Give the backbone structure.
Amino acid sequence: MALAKIVYATMTGNTEGISEILETAFEDEGLDVERVEADDADEDFFDDADICVVATYTYNDGELPFDFEDFHESLSDQDLSGKVFGVAGTGDSELYPDYFCHAADQFEEAFAATGAKKGSNTVKIENEADDEDTEKLRAFVKELIAAQA
């Protein structure tokens, strides 16, 4: 059975909520799932994963969350060839219009250097996920699974 791994950082709970939606969506599709907070993820977290997902918020003016800095720095040095990746981000476009979900974009760039295959476009969510966002996340999961083939 395929294994999806999700690593997330959260401050307000919005991104944790997204990671929970993703976990449920993968489970509903019959995959095994491991979901951990960024502080608990070692640099080799994705080594045994088939699908690698990062869920992040953007701090202040486009900064990575503090607890994701080391993980992000080591990610581009990983060899994730043969794996599929996806990124989901939360942000506030009213407070930070120039940096909306910028950390998600930074993770997408880091993943590109790993040799992993981009399985879906990055999902960017305004603050807390609503019903429409939940459907976007479910579609995101299905695209990631389909990209494995």
About this structure: The beta strands are 3-8, 32-37, 51-57, 84-91, 117-118, 123-126. Residues 3-146 form a domain with the Rossmann fold fold (CATH 3.40.50.360). The chain has one domain: 3-146. The chain has a mean pLDDT of 95.
